[in-house]
Amino acid sequence: MNRAKKILKETFGYSDFRHHQSEIVASILKGEDALVLMPTGGGKSLCYQIPSIVRDGVGVVISPLIALMEDQVNALKLLGVSAAYINSTLSASEVESIEQQARCGDLDLLYLSPERLSNEDMQAFLKTIDIALFAIDEAHCVSQWGHDFRPEYQNLSVLSQQFPDVPRVALTATADERVRDEIVQELDLQKARQFISSFDRPNIRYAIEEQDRGKQQLWDFISQNHSDDAGIVYCLSRRKVESVAEFLTAQGRTALPYHAGLSAKVRAKNQNRFLIEEGVIIVATIAFGMGIDKPDVRFVAHFSMPKNIESYYQETGRAGRDGRPANAWMAYNYKDVVMQRQFIRDSEAGDDYKNVLHNKLDALVDLCEQLECRRITLLRYFGEELAEPCGNCDNCLNPPEKIDASTEAQMALSAIYRTEQRFGMMYLIDVLIGNKNEERIKQFKHHQLNVYGIGKNHPKTWWRRLYRQLISLGYIEVDDEFGALKLTEKAKPILKGEEPFYLRDVVKAKNKTAQNDNL
Ligand code: ADP
Ligand code: ZN
Questions:
Q1: What tens-digit pLDDT sequence spans the chain (519 residues)?
Q2: 202 CA from centroid of ligand 2 (Å)
Q3: Which residues contact 238 (CB under 8 A, 6 or more apart)?
Q4: Where is the Helicase C-terminal domain (predicted)?
């Protein structure tokens, strides 16, 4: 352990280990297996890099992304650590020379893709050298239930079969209990010690609002809170990335696009400017961020809904790595939810897996619509209980108004049922408020229904918000083709009055934020 401490200081330049790093390193040095759960930015790499240097032989690191591998190896080389990677970008002679280095014992770390490791020649080669440890990075990729399943990862069971005496350490930033169990199963880590760090990032302030003013809403957030800070804005599509980057540029900010449709050269250039210049905003699809290590990102804005809570956590986790206050802000659109539900429904996945995806989406929507502390909800998802509300999220700072809208929800659902689930939201609202200008109502004799006009005392916008929340929460489905609203199974208890429904009153909550800002 003394040597490990010395390397931490002299090679990496850090005075102390943090989180569980010290225990993890000690355990691996003893030759034990380990499962490490640490949030993004927590410092997982050192957990296997230091033991690889201290122990005899090469530390073999399995990493899923070529770009990540290359970044890590370059960073290690700069520190004077002997490291290399073998992947498809190398020529046969380059591979040969790295293998030679490993044979002579001149290599401390060797990064491999999981595909490479499945290769029998590679396994035969590994048998001929001294191996310090196997580190399986992004270990959640073995899990079918995880959000990042990679079939190649399932071949990693060869590690325990072929190299039973080499310690294995699996690392991940995203794992609920089920995923954790699967990692243990797949990688044969029953005897491994588990090191679970808290996922809480206390310096990040979470805020989530519904999108009703488009780009202006994003600009309000940025201009009011981050007039010259660096930040990341995530959007779902390339087109949106481009248009948001243009919009922010027009407002006078340096905003650069980043998505898979741009050439590697442009992407590298934009990423570099983000890292080097001050106050640059990167507007990106989710393709951006893996392996980016910029400590002073002051905000992460989601201008589209992320895929699930794991992605949300990982993406927002790129803010405030230096420990100073940072904002994670999201403006979500109920259309994002509708789109994602359709996407899941129409996908090729089996029913079980579709269910998992729907449940994951439900959990995310629940976080968005949440009236209580966001951090409690977020951490609970990762199996962690926070003792009390955090005091550093929008709901803690400006508790939203919680309105009992059980009766109105019943009316809204009933209007769908009475009109035989054949009409869109606008028409249903016209029926509810008894709009005399809507000709079709008489034509269809819907003015004779008992739901006609019973919603008069709320404006159209109010009903729209109610419908949107009912859709987001999965009580109502939107027909792909005609936009007709349809009831789901979940709607029955509300329709029968057996279950209450609470509406999050965003408008009031927003006014409060504005007032507080002026204090
Ligand atoms: P992860 O893989 O968990 O996302 P990294 O291993 O990339 O995290 O580490 C994140 C950042 O924290 C890196 O810049 C790393 O150098 C730094 N870091 C890791 N351990 C320590 C430590 N003990 N003290 C200070 N900084 C550290
Ligand atoms: Zn809170």
A1: 899 999 999 999 999 998 799 999 999 999 999 999 988 778 899 999 999 999 999 999 999 888 889 989 999 999 999 999 998 889 999 999 999 999 999 999 999 999 999 999 999 999 999 999 999 999 999 987 766 788 889 899 999 999 999 999 999 987 677 888 999 999 999 999 999 888 899 999 999 998 989 999 999 999 999 999 999 999 989 999 999 999 999 999 999 999 989 999 999 999 999 999 999 999 999 777 766 778 899 999 999 999 889 889 989 999 998 889 999 999 998 888 888 888 888 888 888 778 878 888 888 998 998 888 999 999 988 778 888 999 999 999 999 888 899 999 999 999 999 999 999 999 999 999 999 999 999 999 999 999 999 999 999 989 988 998 888 788 998 887 778 999 999 999 999 999 999 987 755 444 444 333 333
A2: 10
A3: 259, 260, 261, 285
A4: 214-372
Residues in the chain: 519
3-state class percentages of the chain: helix first, strand second, coil last, to nearest 5: 45, 15, 40
Residue type, 431: V
C-alpha 391 – ligand 2 centre gap (Å): 5
Tokens 């977020």 correspond to what residue? 378
Ligand 1 site-directed mutation target among 6, 10, 44, 46, most atoms within 8 Å of CB: 46
CA of 366 from ligand 2 middle (Å) equals 15
Environment class of 108 (CB within 10 Å of its CB; exposed 0-12, middle 13-18, buried 19+): buried
Ligand 1 atom having least distance to the Cα of 293: 14
Find out whether 99 and 109 touch, Cβ atoms under 8 Å: no
Task: Tell me if ipTM is over 0.90.
Answer: yes
